[in-house]
Design brief:
GO molecular function, one term: diaminopimelate decarboxylase activity
Family: Belongs to the Orn/Lys/Arg decarboxylase class-II family.
CATH class of the largest domain: Alpha Beta
Number of domains: 2
Cofactor: pyridoxal 5'-phosphate
InterPro entries: Ala_racemase/Decarboxylase_C (IPR009006), DAP_deCOOHase_LysA (IPR002986), De-COase2_C (IPR022643), De-COase2_N (IPR022644), Orn/DAP/Arg_de-COase (IPR000183), PLP-binding_barrel (IPR029066)
Number of strands: 18
GO biological process, one term: lysine biosynthetic process via diaminopimelate
CATH topology of the largest domain: TIM Barrel
Bound molecules: pyridoxal-5'-phosphate
Radius of gyration: 24 Å
CATH architecture of the largest domain: Alpha-Beta Barrel
Shape: globular
Length: 470
């Protein structure tokens, strides 16, 4: 990625269009997409992922942890729950962090071997736990009651690595919804609560197969020092458990993900090197090989590898404000539309042919297609004047923006394409097809279309029990 350092006057707020290099490079892909019909009047929004950039991020993650003798890097599936993306990462030797039966299914379909899959979720049902243990997937129990379920469900000869998630309660970052180590977080065993440490040590004493500790301190908005402090507390707990038990029972530490992403310009910062440097300072012994490490990064691996492109359908003026109505809104940039201050994005302006627009900047709003007033992805942003038929690009949207769609207005999930560039040469491959109208109807209950009319027409009888199927 081209690195351009700029003095950034207002952190957390994208400061206008990206550098011309980014614009040119994105334009090459945009022109390919337009020529191939991946983006058109009929298909007015699509997502794009840079395959080489994804692999570079994986390589830089590996390089930063090169000093740790035993480490498994897993990808947090929720950040890009797309089978071809997961397959690419599996081929690259990564593991996968999953948090639901759906994510587990995608990880298996993508080809991750079960011993490279980690199941974390605060609400695992008994059957989900049993299936994970049957497969040999690693499981991080969220709480002590879940450990009791595991006691009952562990099959003989179970190969799953089993750990316990703790909440070091080191506090939150800038975004409340992304902070998992607050005093009252719903995740893990709250370590600073009265008697909690003793209960945790006891839980390990009773279960020789319980060999891991897990902490995921937070995501976007959490400073590295806070994350490192949470991991230091987890490391201290592992040492304490082993000392009390008089044996090295805790052999693995899953240190979670959460490296923040810079959404204000092209620079990758903080880097994975910055992160491991913060860890070395906070936990000097972490990389000495006494604990096998697992990481679970999501956003920092993929955010800067992807962008969303959308056509400008109309432009209008209202109350002196120029508004471009585009097809990229809350259905794909959900967090940005609903929490614009926490999740601002850089926007690029391109013409109908996919060339960066060069006209002088003017203050405009960039809105999406949804029928609610908050469906705006950039408010009062200085951009070259957008016109009907132009394209907008939302940068740094490779993580979460393709995996957390919103079915508002029955808008389709956007199509996603992977690409590689070689100068002006672009090759691409489908990652996810845009949702069709038939698929939208199917997930909206079309199969049961007559159900309510039939229910209303039938007299209720005393024997009627269970669901009535039309
Ligand atoms: C979401 C999540 C991650 C990934 O977080 P990022 O901020 O995307 O790196 C890792 N571990 C757990 C338990 C999570 O819930």
């Amino acid at each position: 990625m081209t690195v351009t350092l700029r003095a950034n006057s207002s952190p957390g707020r994208p400061d206008g269009p990206p550098t011309s290099t980014t614009g040119d490079r994105t334009g090459v892909v945009l022109r390919h997409a337009l020529a191939q019909g991946l983006l058109s009047a009929e298909q007015p929004v699509a997502g794009f992922l840079d395959v080489d950039h994804i692999r570079q991020q994986v390589a830089s993650l590996r390089a930063a942890f090169a000093g740790a003798p035993d480490v498994l890097h897993t990808f947090a599936a929720k950040a890009a729950s797309l089978v071809p993306v997961l397959r690419l990462l599996a081929e690259d030797g990564m593991g996968c962090e999953v948090a639901s039966p759906g994510e587990l299914r995608l990880a298996l379909d993508a080809g991750f071997p079960p011993d490279r899959i980690v199941l974390d979720s605060p609400a695992k049902t008994r059957s989900e736990i049993a299936e994970a243990l049957r497969l040999g997937v690693a499981v991080n129990a969220d709480n002590l009651d879940e450990l009791e379920r595991i006691d009952a469900l562990r099959p003989p000869g179970c190969s799953s690595v089993i750990g316990l998630r703790v909440n070091p309660q080191v506090g939150g970052g800038a975004i409340g919804a992304m902070s998992t180590a607050t005093a009252t977080s719903k995740f893990g065993v709250a370590l600073r609560d009265e008697g909690a440490r003793e209960r945790v040590v006891e839980a390990f004493a009773r279960r020789p197969w319980l060999t891991g500790l897990h902490a995921h301190v937070g995501s976007q908005g959490c400073p590295l020092e806070l994350i490192a402090e949470g991991i230091a507390a987890t490391h201290r707990l592992a040492e304490e458990i082993n000392a009390v038990l008089g044996r090295r029972q805790v052999t693995g530490l899953d240190i979670g993900g959460g490296l923040p992403v810079n959404f204000t310009d092209d620079t990758v910062r903080p880097t994975y090197q910055d992160y491991t440097a913060a860890l070395r300072t906070a936990v000097p012994g972490l990389f000495d090989g006494r604990y096998a490490l697992v990481t679970e990064f999501g956003r920092s691996l993929l955010a800067k590898s992807g962008f969303i492109a959308a056509r400008v359908e109309y432009v209008k003026e209202a109350g002196g404000r120029r508004i471009a109505v585009t097809h990229a809104g809350a259905q794909t940039a959900t967090r940005t539309a609903l929490m614009p201050d926490a999740w601002p994005l850089r926007v690029g302006a391109f013409d109908a042919e996919g060339h960066p627009k060069q006209t002088p900047p003017r203050v405009q709003d960039v809105a999406g297609p949804c029928c609610f007033a908050g469906d705006v992805v950039a408010t009062g942003r200085e951009l070259p004047l957008l016109e009907e038929g132009d394209h907008v690009v939302l940068y740094d949207t490779g993580a979460y923006y393709f995996s957390t769609p919103w079915a508002y207005n029955s808008l389709p999930r956007v199509g996603v394409h992977g690409y590689r560039t070689d100068g002006a040469q672009v090759r691409s491959a489908p990652v996810r097809d845009p949702q069709t109208l038939d698929e939208i109807a199917a997930e909206s209950g079309a199969r049961h279309a007559a159900g309510l009319v039939t229910l209303a027409a039938r007299p209720a009888t005393a024997e009627t029990t269970g669901e009535e199927r039309a």
